[in-house]
Each structure stands twice: as C-alpha cells, then as structure tokens.
Records
---
Amino acid sequence: MKVNSLYREAHLVVAALRIIEYRNQSPPCLEDVAQMLSVSAEEVLRVCRKLKSMGIIETVEKSGETRLFITDHLRIEDIEDRPEQSSISEELEKFHRQKQSERKTIDELKAGQEQKRKKVQEEIERKLKDRMSKKGDDT
C-alpha cells in the first residue's frame, strides 16, 4: 500500500473486509483482501497484525488460510493520521544525528588544537626574537 499512514491503511483494509464479506456472504481471507487492494498478502498481513493488536479486527486461522473479522472499527479513529516511519528510517535518522554531533565535536577539537598550535608558534617566535635581540645587543 502506498498510503503510508496506518490510519488510512486501516480504513482501506476494514472497507475491503466489509465489501468482500458482503459479496461472498462469508468472512474474507487474507488473499481476498490483498487482491481487492492490489497489494501483496504480506503487506495486508502486516497491517492486519497491527489492527489485531489494537483490537480492531480478529483473525482465525483454519485449514491453511486466515479469515478476518471486524471487531471494533471505531478504534481506527484512535490511530493518528500521520505518515508511518519504519524502524529503519528512525535508526537512520538517529545515526545521522549522532554523526552530526560527532562531527561538531571533532570540529571543536580541531579548532582548539589550531588555537594551541598558533599560541605555541607565537611563543616560539617571541622567544626567537628575544634571543635575536639579545645577540644583537651583545655584539
């Protein structure tokens, strides 16, 4: 499903369940819903597992197929209508933030090292000038 929002996917799956149940006069199986929505059975199964954990639908596995039943469609309204992010996306975002933080720390350390180097170089130049001026005074 290209909807990318659990709220919208839930509405689509529940609507498909109702239509198929009306047409066939029996509870639909997972494959029927996938066919109606033109998506893979795995994608429908992913959404159905989430809906089952929320108490929106119930599944019954019998003789190698999974039948789906609507239990409480009103719970769909409890789902936020926002784009769903995969855990991979979240991990990538976390990784990028961590790398940015590390780069900032490294840049700060480099700036500190550069300042130290400049101070040491200025000190060496000052001492060298002092020695040169003392040698010039001694002659």
Note: DSSP finds four helices and two strands in the chain.
---
Amino acid sequence: MRRSVVLHRVPFFETDAMGIVHHANYVRWLELARVAWMDEHDRPYREWVAQGFHFATTRVVVDYRRAVAFDDRVAIATWLDWVAGASLAMAYEIDREGERVATARTEHALVGTDGRPRRLPAPRRAGLEALAASRGRQREARRAKTT
C-alpha cells in the first residue's frame, strides 16, 4: 500500500461561525489528497482527462472525530483501498499534530466524457491493483450484501 500525504494550513475562509472548519471543506481536502496520490503513484489526473476519462465520485463518507480550527496544520494521508472493473475506492486519515481528527473514504466510477461508465483499461487496472491495499476483499463484501 502506497500512501501520499498532503500538508494543509487551514485558512480563515474554511471556518464557519463556530470558528471551526466547515464540514464541506473536508471533501475538498480529500480531492487534493486523491489528486496528489495519483500524481505520485499512478499518473496525473490530467492525463486521464486527456484520454477522455474522469473519476466521478459516487460515494463520500467522513467520520469526524475532533474539530479543526483556523491556522491548524493538518496532514491528509490517502491510499488506494481497492480497484474493480470500472471503479475504485480511496481511504484517508486526517491528522493534526499527530492526533487523528477524521477518517474518510471515497468511491469513484470511471466515466467517459459522455458521463457513461467505462471499464478501466486492462494495463491501467493491473497497475492500480498492484497498488491497492485490499485486492478484491471490499468488492467481494459489496457483492455479498447485494445477494
């Protein structure tokens, strides 16, 4: 499992009236980390786009554990959890000074510019599968729930 870590200093505009980071900003942080992971371990996202593909977000789950405030410094770690025929999942840990403040997971479907699902090209899928934390385990669990 290969991780990437993005460091982020919280600007004032990301906070709400209570003085803490508004929950919607965590989703933005996940995207920053996901794109950095792709740059470091797969290929830059812009190359997928140049080939006519996008990874549409199909699911976002964030478990908030502690509040984050203006000027806090957070580290957003991410890794590829699993890969399937036309989809993948990323997992995240967000820490502030060594304290876990949130965990998250996103799922994505590969789509063409027309918005229709596309299978991951075989060579790209094989490369991603080699980087995934759980090879097939999550996909099998999802199938078991639907039967």
Note: Helices lie at 24-41, 45-50, 122-131, 137-146.
---
Amino acid sequence: MQTSPIIVYLLVLDLVSRIKRLDSTTSAQESTPSSCPRCGSSHTVKNSHIHNGKPKHLCKNCGRQYTINPIKSEVSSETKQLINKLLLERISLKGITRVTGVSWSWLQNYVNDKLSQIPRQIKVQLNQKGN
C-alpha cells in the first residue's frame, strides 16, 4: 500500500504549522521577564544556556543562576530522610541512587555537605611522666 503524495504533502504542512506554533509559544515564554526563585527580584539577565538549549538567567541581586520552568525539581525532605537512613545502613551510593531516583552527583554533594557539618575535634591529652 502506497501513500498518496497529496496526503504526505498535507501531513508535512500540518507538521510544519504545529512546529511553528510550538516555537512561537516557547519563545514567548522565554522572553517574558522572570523573578528570582531565591530572592524574588525581577532584576535578572539572560546568562548563557544549559545543555539542552534552555536559557539560564542570573539574578543581579543575589547572584543565583536558574532556568525558567526547570525539568527537575528539588529533592523532597522525605527522600532526604530516606537517604539518611540508607547511609546509616552503609548501602553503596549507587544503590541509594537506584532506590531513591536521585543522581549520583547530587548524592555525592549531599554526602559531602553532611560530612562537612560534622565537627572535627580531636581531644589530645598529654600524659606527663612522673617527676
């Protein structure tokens, strides 16, 4: 069964019009001024782009870099509690990433931050020999 060239032409026209509409809506969303998620300031500028082409923004007040409508969201507190329990059980980091769905690099940074919060104090006692 062969498809008629007219049907193919109409399908291509429909596809092109859908792509143009999609491009116009995404460019309108990207050009709207945004506010900083940290401090709420609207004094932001575009600052390069991320790996998939979405523009990054830089807040001039607090210096935070962010994207509008990020694909990934923050890790919930429940997931962090689960990670803390799994770390106490001495499960490997790769195993924890498989169970919780967080990235390995995020988990490594989380563990490093937790480790840096632990005070590092060594108590040294000098034993004096009898005089």
Note: Helices lie at 5-31, 77-88, 93-100, 104-117.
